Structure formats: structure tokens, C-alpha cells
Amino acid sequence: MSARELLRANDARFISVAETLTAEQWSAPSLCSEWTNHEVLAHLVIGYSCGIGTFVSHMYRCGGFDPANAALAREHAATRGPGELLAELRNHMDRPIGLGRYFPARLLIGDHVTHELDILYALDLEPRIPIEVLVAVLNTQVSFPNPFVPAYRNSRGLRLVAADADWCHGDGDQLVEGRAAELVSALGNRAAMLPRLRGPGAPTLAERVLSPRTGG
């Protein structure tokens, strides 16, 4: 299965999960500190649909990439309910426009999975993301630097082991072990997931995630 096919299949699965959430759950805070769960969903839609000109103008007005990204999601969520956003996501996952046409599928999978975890873990719900999807995300995120996700930097020098998958990365005695979804979330700077990890390298990872330089 190609990265694009994997992305589409994962988006369809995510939508089926998201359709079961209540209005109260959508309004709750996510693990992504900028947004509620509703705004996280709006961010996923923005990633597929925002025009380049619109994004550049928001960067100029808001003072950078991250503030523009946060503002766009909040603005989009303010005018659309979760049901409308899910309909947009379903439409755009087959026909991305704007930025979505150019962003690599393998990176979008990581973004979408990380934000699904932001929603579910914040609600104390255990994710049921297929292991092959989680492994694909981990392989991508620890293999090369990504300006939007600090997983490559966070993983350097550590031996990472997924307890529920045939996946490991790195070597040495700085072991960090956890379930694959927990590793994806923690490597993406979600400090709330750090207590779920174990091993002598866990304090090193925690220090990196909590460092002001990484925004953790």
C-alpha cells in the first residue's frame, strides 16, 4: 500500500471513530495545548484545504507559522460544527486542495495520527489505530528531521522499543519502552504521555520534551 493509500484508509477509519464523540467531548481540551478537540479537527481540515495565499497572509498577520496555524484552526472551528468538519475532511481526503496537494502523504499520516491521539488520550480513550499505521509513523518521524514535529531530535541517542509491535530504533543503554501510540505521542512533545513510558532513557526523553526550546 502506498503512503497516499495508507493515509486515505487511516483518514476513513479516523472519521468513523470521530463520529462517535459527543458535543461535550469535542469541546474538551486536547493534548495539543493550543486547541480544543473541536479545533484539532478543524486543523486537520485546514491541512487539506487551506490556500497557500491564505496561509501566508495569516503568517504575516499573526507573526509566524505556529501562530498562523493555531489561528486558522480556531477561526475555522468557530464557524463549523464537528459534523460539518467531518464532512469536509471526508471530501478533501480524496481531493485535497491548496497546501494539501503538496504536503507529503507520509508526513500527513504522522500529523493526523498524532492529533487523533491528542483527542483520544485527552478523553481517556484508548486508541485503536492499526499497528502498521503506527509503525509507519514511527519509522518516518525518527528517520529524518521534520520542522513541524520534534520526534527526530527527541529520539537521538535513545533505544526505542514498542512493547506492542515488532518495532525498535537505535541502540545503546538508553532504553525507552512503551506502546507504539504512546511513543508517537511522547516523541511529538506530548508531555502528558511521559508517565506511560519506562526505561533508563525515559528521563532523557522527558527532559527533551519539557525543554522550552522544543515547546514541550
TrEMBL record:
GO terms for molecular function: metal ion binding. SUPFAM superfamilies: DinB/YfiT-like putative metalloenzymes. It comes from the Bacteria. It comes from Mycolicibacterium neworleansense. Residues 7-94 form the Mycothiol-dependent maleylpyruvate isomerase metal-binding domain. This is Mycothiol-dependent maleylpyruvate isomerase metal-binding domain-containing protein. Transmembrane segments: none annotated.
